[in-house]
Write a structure and sequence with these properties.
Order of helices and strands: HHEHEHEEHEEEHHHHEEHHHEH
Strand order of the largest sheet: 1-7-6-5-4-2-3
Number of strands: 10
CATH topology of the largest domain: Aspartate Aminotransferase, domain 2
Number of helices: 13
Bound molecules: pyridoxal-5'-phosphate
Distance between the termini: 19 Å
Number of domains: 2
Structural class: alpha/beta
CATH architecture of the largest domain: 3-Layer(aba) Sandwich
CATH class of the largest domain: Alpha Beta
């Protein structure tokens, strides 16, 4: 049996939506992107959504729209994908890491106040694997110190904690529609917010700082446009947006299936020595199912999974120990010991709605025999 790490669940109608765009005259950002933005806002409950080419773009432009720049510090976690921290650097600011909780891998909110300085401008929490950071506690800290919150929701569209959903207590929520995400079009992202001014800024910044986008310029007749700020080329075209529109209504069903698979894994793995399942506070979006194993055996175990034709990944090795961050900031492993330790122990197993019962049982059996 061969089990892929991830299989998307695009349906015929999603493909047809993209074909319809290809058969139309308008391929770039236009009516379909707008329709996606509206539907996605309805789903998240956040008033404004700006569709973008990636979550990295969303994080970058959110920082700029909130006036974060050179001389500023942004607090975030070392247990994340590099884009969280590189977006801060792209904005000209400095990432300041805070270690994570040893049971969830989420940023340890109780340690945040210790690193706040006069330069701190924002906090960028990451809802890791689908489980949300304690946003109520984080909001209190942000309010007390007058800081912005930009939520990295690449793993968490559908989660909830203490009655709070992603984006509800933050200033901007940033989403990824990358190839393996719960909602995917290959490459794509979005920034959602209840702040109309911030949304407007992000909208302008996503397209060169131009006063009119292609849809506004396209009326069969040339119209002058202006450049009002220095922007980027981060818009999402209608071909990609077309793949997303129909998936939104399937998110709740897909989440139920993801949750069921996670529960099967939880039950299959209970009581195994040398295997830890991270805690999932609140209602997780069940984006990734990650196990923590003995650090001295992790790489050997990865190889054994591959030998059994099971696709696995590592999310993540703590980013403060990647060459660039080590060189640039002289970080040592023990600067963030919990993230470092988790990064040495973590393995992500296949988790997607199309996994069959047989496949889940096979993953459980192989995991048990290997560990
Ligand atoms: C936690 C996290 N943040 C940010 C990103 C960046 O997303 P994108 O590839 O859409 O730029 C990812 C992508 O994998 C991610 O997992």
């Amino acid at each position: 049996m061969k089990i892929e790490f991830f299989k998307h669940s695009l349906q015929k109608e999603d493909v047809q939506n993209a074909v319809d765009v290809l058969n139309s005259i308008f391929l770039t950002t236009g009516p379909v992107s707008s329709s996606f933005e509206e539907k996605f806002s309805n789903f998240t409950g956040l008033e404004h959504t700006v569709s973008l080419s990636s979550c990295t773009a969303a994080l970058h432009l959110s920082l700029l729209a909130l006036d974060v720049g050179p001389g500023d510090e942004v607090i975030t976690t070392p247990m994340t994908f590099i884009a969280t921290a590189t977006s801060i650097l792209h904005a000209g600011a400095v990432p300041v890491f805070v270690d994570v909780e040893d049971d969830t891998g989420l940023i340890d909110v109780s340690k945040i106040e210790k690193v706040i300085t006069k330069r701190t401008k924002a906090i960028m929490p990451v809802h890791l694997y689908g489980a949300m950071v304690d946003m109520k506690a984080l909001r209190q800290i942000a309010q007390k110190h007058n800081l912005k919150i930009i939520e990295d929701c690449a793993h968490c569209i559908e989660g909830e904690r203490d009655g709070i959903k992603p984006g509800q207590l933050g200033d901007v929520a940033c989403y990824s529609f990358y190839a393996t995400k719960n909602l995917t079009c290959g490459e794509g992202g979005a920034a959602s917010t209840n702040n109309a001014d911030v949304a407007k800024k992000i909208r302008t910044l996503r397209l060169h700082g131009m006063s009119k986008d292609a849809a506004a310029r396209y009326h069969g007749r040339y119209k002058h446009w202006d450049m009002i700020s220095l922007g980027w080329k981060y818009n999402l075209d209608d071909i990609h947006a077309a793949l997303l529109v129909g998936q939104i209504s399937r998110l709740p069903d897909n989440l139920r299936m993801r949750k069921k698979i996670s529960t099967c894994y939880d039950e299959g793995f209970s009581g195994i020595k040398n295997l830890t399942i991270p805690s999932r506070p609140g209602e997780s979006a069940h984006h990734l199912y990650t196990i923590w194993v003995d650090k001295d055996r992790r790489d050997e175990i990865l190889t054994l999974f591959h030998e059994h034709d099971i696709g696995v990944a590592v999310n993540y090795r703590a980013i403060h120990q990647l060459t660039f961050f080590q060189k640039e900031f002289s970080f040592l492993p023990d600067d963030y010991p919990i993230a470092y330790d988790i990064g040495k122990r973590t393995i992500t197993l296949p988790l997607y709605p199309g996994l069959t019962k047989n496949e889940i049982d096979y993953v459980i059996d192989v995991t048990k025999s290997i560990i």
